Amino acid sequence: MFYRKRGYIILDCNATSVDLQAIIFALEFSSVLCITVSGTERVTLDNAYCQVLRTTSLIGRFDIPVIKQGQGGHRAGHQIAKICEQFPHKVTIVCLGPLTNIADALNCSNTFHKKVKRIVFAAGGFSGRQFTCHHNIEVSLCKKYNCNL
């Protein structure tokens, strides 16, 4: 498929049902390097991790590492930064949940923002009549790295 030639993807999610559908689609049509997982007030970190492992195993993709936030001394953000160093300007990060792991990547690497090809994020939701967009990248980090959110 032509999608596989376009570079690499890191999926950063919190394993809601929509995230799991996106994981299935991404694993079918792109070169996913890893999936990083964070928890929220609705989905605990352990539940999110188990859901992603179930989803990847259900479709037979045991080759994709799933890294949870704070796992075994290796923070997911650190792993994201490390992968972007390994494949400079070739990695697109798709953020489907809170941006904790991206903030962590910015904190642990001075060159992360220069090495990543693109960050695509969809954080927020529609509740009743109000759209709520939530993110937790600190404003000071955005100013430091000249990020416009």
Key traits:
149 residues, 38% helix, alpha/beta, two-stranded antiparallel ribbon
TL;DR?
The protein is built from six helices and seven strands. The protein is an alpha/beta fold and 149 residues long.
Overall description:
The protein has 149 residues and is an alpha/beta fold. Helix content is 38%, strand content 21%. It has helices at 17-29, 45-58, 76-86, 100-108, 112-115, 139-144, and strands at residues 8-13, 31-37, 66-68, 91-95, 118-121, 125-127, 130-132. The strands form 2 sheets. Strands 3-2-1-4-5 form a 5-stranded parallel sheet, with helices on both faces. A two-stranded antiparallel sheet has the order 6-7. Helix 1 (17-29) links the parallel strand 1 (8-13) and strand 2 (31-37). Helix 1 runs parallel beside helix 2 (45-58) and helix 3 crosses helix 4 (100-108). The longest helix has 14 residues, at 45-58.
Task: Reconstruct the topology from this structure.
Layout: E1 8-13, H1 17-29, E2 31-37, H2 45-58, E3 66-68, H3 76-86, E4 91-95, H4 100-108, H5 112-115, E5 118-121, E6 125-127, E7 130-132, H6 139-144
Parallel strand pairs: 1-2, 1-4, 2-3, 4-5
Antiparallel strand pairs: 6-7
Helix pairs in contact: 1-2, 3-4
